[in-house]
Amino acid sequence: MGVITRLCPYFRLTDAQLSPVYNLLKGDSDLKSPRTLTPEACQVLEEIQQAVSARQVYHIDLSVDVTVFVTTPDSHPTGIIGQWSDKWSDPLHILEWVFLPHQPQKTATTLAELIAWLISKCRQRMHILCRSSFS
């Protein structure tokens, strides 16, 4: 939800539209506690899925730089490999989402180290994506 709320302006979703999903997060702080999806929350999740799919692209425009966007919801960095052009009707084209493992580290890791690890992982994926674009 943290990534989605930060990207709401690009997905053209408002906080009011997301409120049924936010309501699911209220209550028991235990993440494993059972939650029941309301019909309204199901509808919002479908709208989110459609918004993400609409901005997902399957090719790289070689005339536009490929960029890594990093968000840090809840101190867990997420990467978005994409392209941005003000010339497009929808300026953000998402090529791929990049996530770090959700398993806890055996050593203490700072947010800066996590971001560095994420950037390294994004660079590896970008090399593969760009190489396949030239094939």
TrEMBL record:
Residues 3-45 form the Reverse transcriptase thumb domain. It comes from the Eukaryota. GO terms for molecular function: endonuclease activity; hydrolase activity; RNA stem-loop binding; RNA-directed DNA polymerase activity. Gene3D superfamilies: 3.30.70.270. The keyword Zinc applies. InterPro entries: DNA/RNA_pol_sf (IPR043502), Rev_trsase/Diguanyl_cyclase (IPR043128), RVT_thumb (IPR010661). Keywords: Endonuclease, Hydrolase, Multifunctional enzyme, Nuclease, Nucleotidyltransferase, RNA-directed DNA polymerase, Transferase, Zinc. This is Reverse transcriptase thumb domain-containing protein. It comes from Chloebia gouldiae.
